[in-house]
Amino acid sequence: MKTSGKPKYIFYGLGILILTLGASFTIQSGLGASPFDALLVGLSLNVGLTVGSWEIIIALILIGCNSLLKRQRPELLGLLTALITGLGIDTWLFLWRHLLIPELWFSKLVCFGIGLIVIGIGTAIYLHTNFAPMPVDRLMLIIRELSGMNILLSRTFIYILFLTMAILFDGPIGIGTLFTVCLGGPILSCFMPK
User: Fold this and answer.
1) How far is CA 55 from the centre of its chain?
2) Separation between Cα atoms, residue 123 and residue 106, nearest integer Å
3) What mean pLDDT is reported for the chain?
4) Is residue 92 within 8 Å of residue 23, measured between CB atoms?
5) 40/45 Cα distance (integer angstroms)
6) Which among 72, 81, 85, 71 has a CA at the least distance from the CA of 132?
7) pTM
8) DSSP 170
9) What is the distance between the alpha carbons of residues 27 and 81, in angstroms, rounded to a whole number?
10) Closest C-alpha to 54, from 138, 33, 46
């Protein structure tokens, strides 16, 4: 996908909108969110603030870490992405909280599966714009660059790192979290070339 000029920003916004929609589906499924989202939900439930607010706070920390790893000035545009993503997640969760409440095991699995695929599509779309990637995705790309890992391994490494932190903050960990760790990287690498 080649993007330039105005279409670049349209794809950027569309990708984030799709990504946050997928994240809200996985959170609402009740099967366990992605490790990063589970950390955000755990912080929200145990410390306070909204899930989106924690997205922004963690983004600030990651921007500093990424800057140290790359030995360059902080990429503050990543904060814009985190702000939009945080607002998107909070908005979707607000909209879905009474409308999307899967109760049967099958409906929870479908809700989660749709969310996982939609996250992969949204992430691939906005990463292809090469404009202000989320700090967590920039960290994935930095790890790939520094270690020589492919995108699948670097994404899985990031998932394991955030899974550990989500467990510490009692985030919603479940079978869906395991599916995300195992399938998130392959789904993203499947959509990246497209």
Assistant:
1) 9
2) 26
3) 84
4) yes
5) 9
6) 81
7) 0.79
8) T
9) 20
10) 46
pLDDT value, residue 33 = 83
Non-local (6+) Cβ contacts of 35 within 8 A are 159, 160, 161, 162, 163, 165, 166, 177, 180, 181
Dihedral in degrees, nearest 10, Cα atoms 60, 77, 45, 162: -70
Taking residues 145-167, what's their average pLDDT? 83
Cβ-based neighbours of 169, under 8 Å, separated by 6 or more: 39, 42, 43, 46, 47
Place of tokens 């790309």: 141
pLDDT value of residue 194: 62
Dump the DSSP string for 4-36: -HHHHHHHHHHHHHHHHHHHHHHHHHSS---HH
3-state SS class at 194: coil
Residue span of the structural domain in which 93 resides: 5-191
d(CA 188, CA 154): 11
Our count of domains for the chain comes to: 1
Measure the CA–CA gap between 22 and 19, rounded to whole angstroms. Answer: 5
